[in-house]
Amino acid sequence: MELSLTVLGSSGSYPGPGRACSSYLVEGGGVRVWVDAGSGSLANLQRHVALSEVDAVIISHEHADHWQDIEGFAIGCHLLLRLPPIPIYAPAGLRGRMQGPAGAFLWNDVTDDDRIRIGGLEVSFHRTDHGPETLAMRFDRGGRALGYSADSGPGWSLEALGRGLDLALCEATYLADREGTLQHLSARQAGVSARAAGAGRLVITHLQPGVDPERARAEAEAAFGAPVEVAIEGLRIEL
Ligand SMILES: [Zn+2]
Ligand SMILES: [Zn+2]
Questions:
Q1: pTM of the prediction?
Q2: How far is the CA of 109 from the centre of ligand 2 (A)?
Q3: 129: how many CB neighbours lie within 10 A of its CB?
């Protein structure tokens, strides 16, 4: 196993019943990275790793459904466990929103086209079509690649992450009947995007509460042309 994805939060925009907002654990190259930290995800994170085992945090953008649980994480790590500061990578706009203890994190601003290395994991960032600066990500390790759309409207495509994605994790906020109502993708559009990128496998996520996952899956599959999985808390995929 070179690279793995564990879903910690799959709900879009606000938490659904028993579901957390956007959050994932990406492991590979000897490191564990907490990617997005929507509300409810800190509880789920600890089902898989201890707080002291998180090597870095990456936040895609400053919308509340993607970062709020770093507040509790900072209190736990810094004030209670007294861990050394943890590297965090995020668009510059996020810093000013954080209320928690200064010193919990080592802040690193990232922007479009940036590439970083965390342990043996390579991460590249690509700005999407969304409100505040929002960064999609590509994770590479040992010839395996995972792409994550973060949030995006249809003006951006997973193609921007490059060829060779073994797995595309793509937002699908609603069904095709709501296309164009928000700067988000429908399940159909997620399928179109993943197909255009030539992704080997597609997992859709960020479904808003009330969106029927089976209808979303069917819509995405028809556009992608292959089976699609719907993200749910606890889903783990090894690449
Ligand atoms: Zn969102
Ligand atoms: Zn957003």
A1: 0.98
A2: 18
A3: 17
